[in-house]
């Protein structure tokens, strides 16, 4: 592999996935070969260890200049406004999620970028979609602007595959749980916040009902799925921008019970808010057999293993005095 083909651009690098994907990619390709970009300056040391450029993805000329400067050949486009934040400002969600993606795909087409990864989400589903074992190919009826943009983004990516032979790939991610990035405006963020507040306060007020069940994935599996999909043989892929992927499904009460096995004094209260309606429109579980068949997807973490690892890491951070949580 030549230095040119190894040069990678990551948008939204300071976000939940980007802040951990960038170090993972730099481990594989080298610090100088992965260009991190975001609208805001990076706060984590990991992102400062290699090249960083400030970028507003809605500004196509900025994006094109960076691609030319570094001779980018692969883009991981993660910049987006998430579900709950998008409902507070749907116009901005459309501008960032749709115009940003269009700018990335157009720049890739025009500037000889070989591959683009753009994540989708279970937000593409809705009340008309089967909620249990949601199929790969099914009715998409989103109820949020975030979901609307992700449906449109899937179709736009597939259009660029068929029309321009651009290699565009994406996963429909469930909730992503991480001990590095703080909650960032998503409906599934309770499953991140609950760990922090369990360790710090030994209590949590959940904005979903106890029986609310959603598909989830631990960050190491998220990173694994992205890297494995991008390395897959293109000729094997029947789908492109919309692979269902998942690792586990659990309710808020089941997660709380698992935490209590480690922290017996932990208490949880349930105070559903506007995010409950969003969660009610999403699947309880996902059929990801297409990802397993087409590129060998296989998760490593279940609820038990993830909970143990999350609490271990956060408790270690707390003991060192560097567990930051603004809640």
What does this structure look like?
With 327 residues, this protein is an alpha/beta fold. The protein folds into 2 domains: 198 residues, 3-Layer(aba) Sandwich (Rossmann fold), CATH 3.40.50; 100 residues, Alpha-Beta Complex (UDP-galactose 4-epimerase, domain 1), CATH 3.90.25.10. It is 44% helix and 15% strand. It contains 13 helices and 14 strands. The protein has a 6-stranded parallel beta sheet with strand order 3-2-1-4-5-7, sandwiched between helices. Strands 6-8-12 form a 3-stranded parallel beta sheet. Helix 4 packs parallel to helix 6, helix 8 packs parallel to helix 10 and helix 8 packs across helix 13. It is globular.
Task: Profile the largest sheet.
Answer: 6 strands, parallel
Strand order of the largest sheet: 3-2-1-4-5-7
* Percentage of residues in DSSP E strands: 15-25%
3D shape: globular
- SSE pattern, N- to C-terminal: HEHEHEHEHHEEHEEEHEEHEEHEHHH
Topology:
Elements: H1 3-6, E1 8-11, H2 18-29, E2 34-38, H3 45-48, E3 52-54, H4 60-70, E4 74-77, H5 83-88, H6 90-110, E5 115-117, E6 120-121, H7 145-164, E7 167-169, E8 171-173, E9 175-177, H8 190-200, E10 203-206, E11 213-218, H9 219-231, E12 243-244, E13 248-251, H10 252-262, E14 267-270, H11 275-280, H12 289-295, H13 303-320
Parallel strand pairs: 1-2, 1-4, 2-3, 4-5, 5-7, 6-8, 8-12, 9-11, 10-14
Antiparallel strand pairs: 11-13
